[in-house]
Amino acid sequence: METDSIVPAVLEWFIEHGRSELPWQFEQTRYRVWISEIMLQQTQVNIVIPYYERFMARFPTLRTLAEASEDEVLAHWSGLGYYARARNLHRAAKIAVAEHGGELPGDPATLETLPGIGRSTAAAILAFADGQPHAILDGNVKRVLARAFAVDGWPGKTAVLDELWALSEMLTAATASTTATRIRDAFVADVECRVECHAERDAERAAEGAAEGAAEGAAEGAAEGDAEGDAEGDAESLARARLVNGAEQRGLARSKAAGGRFVETGRPRFHPKSATAMFNQAMMDLGSAVCTRSSPHCGICPLSDFCKARAMNTVADYPGKKPKKAVPVRETRMLLLENEAGEWLLERRPPSGVWGGLWSFPEVKDETGMAAWLCAAGLLRRDEYAPPDSCARFRHTFSHFHLDIEVWRLPVRISDSAVLESVPRVWYNGGTLPGGIAAAVQKILDTRPEQIQ
What we know:
By secondary structure, the chain is of the alpha+beta class. It folds into 3 domains: 3-175, Orthogonal Bundle (Endonuclease III, domain 1); 195-257; 329-451, Nucleoside Triphosphate Pyrophosphohydrolase (Alpha-Beta Complex), CATH 3.90.79. 50% of the residues lie in helices and 9% in strands. The strands form 2 sheets. Strands 4-1-6-5 form a 4-stranded mixed sheet. A hairpin with a 4-residue loop joins β5 and β6 (402-411). α2 packs across α8 (119-130), α9 (139-148) packs across α13 and α11 packs antiparallel against α12 (233-257). The longest helix has 50 residues, at 178-227. The chain is globular, with a radius of gyration of 30 Å. Residues 225-266 have low confidence and may be disordered.
């Protein structure tokens, strides 16, 4: 396979095997694509889907996101992790409203000035939303290119990254060919035909259901009319009208149960706005489904005849591994302070740092620090101190370190007002908080302390 055959081969593979019904693949505006691209960073598609749908239901436009509070944005992000992404989304939305007329900029250089948007993300937004011919280079694409062209070295190194970008741009330029455009046009035509046929089938089912229901209703009306032969004509007509109307509704209900969707236009599907957009999606899908990090399915890969790593039987060596570095381990103690009402004390973390801006249990380094913290917070007098109950230990792993958490449980008797002064704190009873809860804290809240591992 020659280099100029790669793009057509990948596009043809996508037609048969690519993902084309993800929720962010229809109505591809810059805003919708942007939200999906940020959520998909370091997070799997199946995890992102429900978060994306909830997020878009609450923040359907860039302006609604900009006008929301950071607390609400974090609350809708809670559980997805890497919360800096949510804070950057919120900051970028505010900047776009203030400086760009409430729209994401349409050129990559300006788009990259917004918080959290790098080169590949900007390229994806403009390629998918506008059809612009920009190359992307996410983790999946890096892996495909590193193996196909046997690019040595860890992609985190500048020289290796530059080589991968050059390859991605070379292939993206090839999407302007007549062949690539023809494949994309044929794909879109097929999608539109499928949607139209689906809509016609829905309409037919709805009509059949309505007709069947109307017929049943008329029969029921006639039988009832015979039984009530002495009724006035006007009353009989009214009764029949009601029966027919009810039967029509039952028919529509049957149609819906059979799969009909009445006036909907059909199943949402991916309509790539250019061959570049289609190729970018295909490369991401290829890396996600076939050229996987471990146990790649080389036998069904459209690039198997071209792939240099496969030819050398060195697929597992690409891309190059990051130089190993010992992962540091940190320790902390979280205090489960329970009041007489069975509520737990949570406090707001500082805006920056680990779990910035989220709610967490109070943390101390050791038992001496705990006693001092409790006294400073007004939760007990020094003569009342008793050792805490160490009820659980577990490890929470971040991208760059491990955090060993020991959970100390301690009942306290104190008035609400005394502990809630100065530092943002709440007595938590399972209700909604104005902001997200740290993942490790949520694990403790969701699990009996003695069962935490």
